[in-house]
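Here is one chain, start to finish.
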Amino acid sequence: MAKPVWNTAAGNLGTIQERTTQSFTLDASDATTYSLISGELPGGLRLSSNRIVGTPLEVPEQQLSEFVIRASNSEGAIDRTFNLIVEGEDPPLWLTPSGTLDIGPNGEYYIINNSPVDYQLSATDSDLTAGDELEFYFDDLYGELPPGLSMDKNGRITGILNAPLTIDYKGESNAYDLQFYDFYPYDYAGTADEEGAPPRYLSRYYQFQVTVSDGVTRERRIFRVFVIHEQQFRTDTTLLSVSDDRIISSATFLRAPIWTTTGNLGIRRANNYVTIPLEVYDPNEYFGNVDYALVPNADSTESILPTGMSLDTTNGVLFGKVPYQPAVTQSYTFTVRVTRTDLNTNEKVYSERQFTIKIQGEVDSTITFTSPTLLGTLVPNEQSVLQINATTTVTGASIRYNIVSGNLPPGLSLGSNGEIIGKVNQFADENNSGITTIDLADYGLDSFKLDGGTTTVDRTYRFTIAARDYFQLSAVEKEFRIAVIADTTTQYSNIFLQPFLSKNKRQYFYDFITDTSIFPEDSLYRANDPSFGTQTQIRMLLQHGIETETVDKYVPALSTNFHRKTFRFGDIKIANASDADDNAIYEVIYVDLIDDAENFRGSVPDRVPLNNSNVGITADTSKFKVSTSLITIDQLIEKYIYPNSVENMKKKLAELTPDGDSNLIEINETFLPLWMKSTQKATGIALGYTKAFALAYVKPGQGLSILENVQESGFDFKNIEFEIDRLVIDSVTGETGDKYIAFPKRKVI
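Its structure:
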């Protein structure tokens, strides 16, 4: 028996559809066994003898699976590489029917003007990964929502209707139109000029188109909202007919007030005056009286107010002095009914809500700010790590912070735990939020002067912060400042390399990084800051602090040493970050990324001549050959002509001349991450630029325990791939948010 010989051609076996039964026969002469030795078959398929069979699982987008099959017998074996493409980009499926929405409070296919709306559009998509969501948005060129309503990205329509349904009409005195008499409000034109004539109203359909997207595909649907004026429910209306199947006979213009005060009234302090307004939204504000009353709770128990408090039945205010009580907390539950009565018909409608309030006994609470007045100095586009801190004498009570007056630098926000989150905007964003500049592009930083150079632009932002303990027992306020140094008109960006993982691999990593048993929230540094805490996206910093330009200015750098490549995952390590005074700020758990293009040869030149004797390539008149196998342009360029090492990528970016002259693009070392700049305790030197991606930022001293959790979790980075085919830039001139630049495509030669 001879060694097996493949009869099935290498390469693509075909393009198949998800969730359809498949069978592919592989043929190799004299082969007795077939085995999968590398790569992966599409999910749902398996190798059975010499056949690939099964039903491919659903995929969110077209997916290429490459694998190696070994055909063997007692005389030897031969391998061949194949691939399969699975298609299945399913568009989202609308669940909400098209047409008029059942948007009324009881599912009616109409809504009365001036009513509150909270309506959820629904769609589903089997392609979604856990943690992902469908996104809804309007086609701005098609229709409109009724005034007062808005829709968020989750498809939830909310607001209070404020549609202009009143008709402003005038005509000649004592004139008639050509329509049926008394069918439209403009039948008798002269009434509009008569003093005291009642206003007239029309119903209106608002039609709009909504698009739902899963990030790959999208689906559109047209909806309508039918808005009716309350006057159309009175007996003298001429705009409804008995054949109208949208409105039932019991419909009324009178609507019950809607509670806006939540049922949990929180904690109030004993031995203190307490005033709590119970607020409602009243759609029928001018049609009678509203009164409030205590009624039994839903479980038939008695409604009991705290001692010393009463309910104002006209204005709906709880008020009174709660007497002293010991250092205990008492809870009170009561139900309030608000009733609207129409003056003309005496018709009544009401709404009830059950409330809970806790009265805190005598507690000594003192809050003290520990942060300095000047929180720090920031550079535009640099990530803030500033935080406001305060202490309280109440054991176990957390403190919440909010801005009372003033403004943070543009681009920053205050977290409820006191963290200053974000980056300072150097120039105005889409909300016109940016630091103040005066013709810097034309005059320069030092050329434009006011009053002989004595006038300056204020770059210190002042704001007042209130700190309150959880029990609302006490609060203090303090003014803080943040200084911004903007000594250049140049903006800076960061460029990343990010793999775009398949659905199942994204899910695998998502389940790992969100596991609180591995990454406890109380161990994380700035857990609510997207730039810190746990990192749900795998990305490696390629170039820090590069001069911000338009997208097209970066493209020339990609012409040589940028093409698809795969990094290998190295060791999981810990690094510390500290300030200029060597005070520990945080620790980072990171994973080394191994660049074979650099490790194979050490420091790789940006170009290797074709006649290099170490290359092993001989030139043919029509093609390059390595032994007897054809290679792709990618392989030729990657290994021999323009190696795609990280060192070469960084070099090409740094050599850009965006202005078309000899001025190189600027690189600002300030933007190197703090943990790469900080002196490491173990070595006494800084890491410098590191090829790695951060898993989590943790509080000082927590890194070792988190690292042990990761090592014991069983998570294996070999189950995912760090393959990249594009750059990710966090900001470009004139735009905000991540932008992508794909690497040039190559061909087989």
